[in-house]
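Field reference: "sequence" (input) and "structure" (output). Example, GAF domain-containing protein:
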Amino acid sequence: MTLSTERLGHAQRLVALQSTLEQIRLQQQIEPLLALALEFIQAVFSYPLVWIATYNPDRRELTGVHGAMPKTEKTAWAQQGLKVLPGDYFDQVLLTGQPAVIADLQQDQRAGQWQTIASRTEIEGALIYPLWHHNQPYGVILMGSHHWGGNPRPEEMTHLSILCGALGAALHDLQPQGQSPGQLHQSLQAAIGQLTLISGFEERLTVVLQFLHQALSPAQTSLYWLDTQQQCFWQRLFYRAEMSKRSRGKRSTPIEVPLSDIQHFHQALRTEPVVAVSEIQGTVSTKAPARLMHQMRRRSLLSAPLMINQQLCGFLAVEGTEPRVWRDQEKQLIQAFAQLANLASPTMMEEGLPSASNNNHNRLIFQTLQSVAQSQDWTQTQQQIMEQVCLHLQSQWMAVLSPDPRTGQFQIVQQIHTPKLKPSTDPFQPLSEVDRNMIRRSEQAIAIDNLTDDLRLLAWKPKIDALGIKALLLSHTTQDQQLDQILLLGGLTPRSWTTADCDLLDRVGQALNAGRQQHRLQVENQQQKRLNTIVPQSLIRQDQAANPKQLVTDALQDMVEMLSVPAAAVVFWEGGQAEIAACVASPPDFDLAQNTPIDMAQDALLQSLLTLGPPQIQEDALQNIVAVPVQDLTPETRLWLNCRALEQVLAIPILESDQHQSLGAVIFGNNFRPGGDSRTWDLQLVGGAAMLVRHLASRYRSMVSLKRNRKQLQSLNCLNWYQYRQIERHCQTALTYQRDPQVQGAASPAAQALLAKSQAAIEKIEQLMQIDSEQFPLEETSLPIASLLRQSLARVSTLANQRQLWTQVHNLTSNSTATGVNPKLEQILYELLLAACYRSQAGQRIDIWCRLADSQWLELSITDQGLINPQMIADLTNRSDVDAPTLKSPPGKHLRACQTLMKRLGGQLEFAQLDDGRVLSRLMLPLKSSLRV
């Protein structure tokens, strides 16, 4: 399937991709959005068959929107619908989010009706790419080739991955996605408010079913209860939107399923917070209750267990008549509603009067669920919940621990304590395998009444003793076997923890875990939005940068904003030496010195980035990135990377995709968060930063090359001007000697001397023609200012007399001497006087003013009353590029050459128009010694 013809070069393909992505972000309708994708694929690739379709998960159907087909085929097929069948290629791609490569579309039965179309159009190799966003399918792109095989180039896969990712995000924004997280939270909050007004258990369960059904819109929502005597689940309540109020929740023949028929499903309910089943995944899943789904006549099921006193008493079920991919938000929502149903358990609502302690527990759990549902700032919400738990259970310390997979230690994510305690932020030591297994297998909170006499958690005892904690309550916040987060509750004196205390901490831990997961999803969503916003804007800013310094500074600021790091630097190297070109840091914890020299030979970090393979695909680009803990850096690197509070360093080489030699590197550093939570690098954001670095490499190389070329052009213009004026001068000298009367027809010594002078002038012309910009001699000599002015005025005297101009020198001493180059300095002054003469009218004056600026500089100013183009003065003053219109031809071209040469001589040349209309040409000449003028 590899194509033989490349319609566009690599750089052109990247430009086309960037342009397409920018246009995609501007689209508000699906059809023109996908038309852009079709146009890009046809322009960049040579697939004769292209089909782009959107996906309807409820109907399990693909609907064609745009496409291209061989000329022999009619185009009506592009808008056809296609049912997605279990096990076919489209089902596989939509479920996994991974592209499928088909060697021969004509021979593969899993291609469905496309097998027939492929045979008719002689299509063989094919590629199906999903349009995914946030683990949800929104459509597919099918591309076919006349060639057999399934070997698309990595470059093609990279471009298609970027394009399809952008299309998936755009379709996510344009297509209705059901309820947003905020709406789901509102549903949960409304249900909580309604439950507070109802006291009956059955009525509360009915409210839970109603709100859950409205939030997820399934075919039916049911509550199944466990009959321990009959060892079966039976349908206690159910809700359907189309049911009448009288028949709602009633059923003539309730469904009953023996536990023996759904053993794996029963076990999953006991150990997992949510069990999701769909025919999309096939019926081979051990968790799928085949008997139950057969009786319900359902093809998808989402269930959450109902627990009373840590015992399974039933489950909530959201049922669908069609296969359905259950979203994470839907799973979290049913889990939250299951917890609401748990709080309405009959042991607390129907069996006698509840105790004051239980009422307080319920109130606190309700408040916790409300806080989680309404949370805007998760850190603050978790802090408030922990404070309420400590106050309710009369404890003095509470902490949330998170394991560090790299070290095995448990970092303190967040903690609260009384003013008497001064806990440290140092991590807890790794637990023994016995203690880890104890926490994993525990079905309820672990209570330690007196730590002094208890042998559990021995690795933590020194730290807990140092905190002054004597009694401890520990809860694992998740119901699986992975140690994700742990809640620790401590008291300063030994105490007996009740079952209600353990249950409360478990419930709070589960709520905090659900809130943390929701917060993590929100953070990921924000990161994706930040990536989609910053990357295109940064690419535009890089393209609009006026100079390399602005380019590097802007790009670094954008990458720092995207990665949210406290320190970063751009390092460029050349000839074995490296230097910090730009940096972002906050002293004193982060202190980088710009323009700091770095010895490349002694720096292991930079040596590892010096020579790398070109990043042809995204995975290769990420492989070139180096992430190193600070403690693993060599002393030479730590010397210039002076960031004492850093934890990790991430280095991305500044490397173009077609180059092997990197220009430098972008170094990022992160630190410990308050509370000891260690930061990790988000690969998605790092990939975005790597894309910006590659664009930076291309733009920087182009700008440096352009600057070098412009400098060379200025140097050549300067040399051409100088050669032209000197040749003009020597030609006039030679002609003057040859036309002398003594030379005509005479062989006297005087005639011979004049001819020798003429020949010497001609030889100087030949020498001038042989020098180039690299050999332009700039040897310094001492030149009296009076001689300089006298020679320059003598050269323009003829022109001044012809145009009836007056020239005068003011305030000049006879011994003023400047350090310059003869005759180059004289040539510059001559050019300035020549330009003044040409722009002046008959009878006007040209004045030359001599003034001592200070002990090091002498100022020579020429004023005239001639007419001059103001734009030319502006271009000369602003040091405009050589391609400015006023500087492309004389006199602007010659005056710019004078500026360039004067700068090389160590002086300055400025132009201005005075308020009285006179034109000022100011020369600043370096003096040989202190003079009086």
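The chain has five domains: 10-174, 181-349, 363-523, 545-706, 777-926.
The mean pLDDT is 78.
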